[in-house]
Specification:
By secondary structure, the protein is mainly α. It is about 55% helix and about 5% strand.
Length: about 220
């Protein structure tokens, strides 16, 4: 599994400045776990063949029925379907902005991967995701109301914080490895910026794809 590519997806979903811009591309206020799933879906749809040399990475979109790398989180699964359905419905009415946002999202993830040094702590990410599956099996979780009758979570909510704490506990108990852990984020991923990565990410994306339409502006 390419941990640099996985780290870019986790950074996109959980690092605040990246997540805010990614949500803007899809024209919805989305929680980190849904963004993680949709970024991987966007890569399946728009990614080049060379991106599929590590297919196991895509199991981090919605887990697996066999429980690997974690059981299917039904809430996130439903939220992802809801976003895709709304994008297709809008496109049928002539509004392709949401649908085209998936193409821009895939390019944005590649820009993070290229211009930063994203890292993924694989075992910690698994522990974090498993905590969410247990939470969802025990009943509704916190979240903000979103279109389609769903709720989206935020890295600061108590369920995300609890999953992060549980992942830390599991990793401490397992005592895996002797190297210092990367800076923690809510997903188990971290981004260490390279010196040339201080440029805002929207500008990075335009540099990588100069013919692309103008990015949506914030605000």
């Amino acid at each position: 599994m390419d941990l640099k590519r996985l780290g870019a997806i986790l950074a996109l979903a959980y690092e605040r400045e990246f997540a805010d811009f990614a949500s803007l591309l899809l024209l919805e206020n989305l929680g980190p776990r849904t963004l993680q799933s949709l970024a991987l879906i966007a890569e399946v749809v728009h990614g080049a063949p060379s991106r599929f040399t590590d297919p196991a990475r895509f199991s981090f979109a919605h887990g697996g029925k066999d429980g690997h790398p974690f059981p299917v989180p039904l809430k996130t699964y439903d939220e992802s379907i809801g976003v895709l359905r709304r994008s297709l419905d809008a496109a049928k009415l002539g509004d392709r902005d949401k649908l085209e946002g998936f193409g821009r999202l895939e390019k944005f993830a590649r820009a993070i991967e290229k211009r930063c040094a994203p890292e993924a702590d694989f075992q910690r990410t698994i522990a974090h995701e498993l905590s969410h599956v247990v939470q969802q099996s025990q009943g509704p979780v916190d979240g903000s109301d979103a279109p389609g009758g769903i709720k989206v979570s935020d890295p600061s909510d108590r369920f995300e914080q609890a999953a992060d704490h549980q992942a830390e506990t599991v990793m401490s108990s397992a005592n895996l490895g002797s190297a210092p852990a990367p800076a923690a984020s809510s997903s188990g991923g971290s981004v260490q910026r390279e010196e040339d990565a201080a440029v805002p990410m929207p500008a990075l994306q335009r540099e990588e794809a100069p013919d692309e339409d103008e990015m949506p502006s914030g605000g």
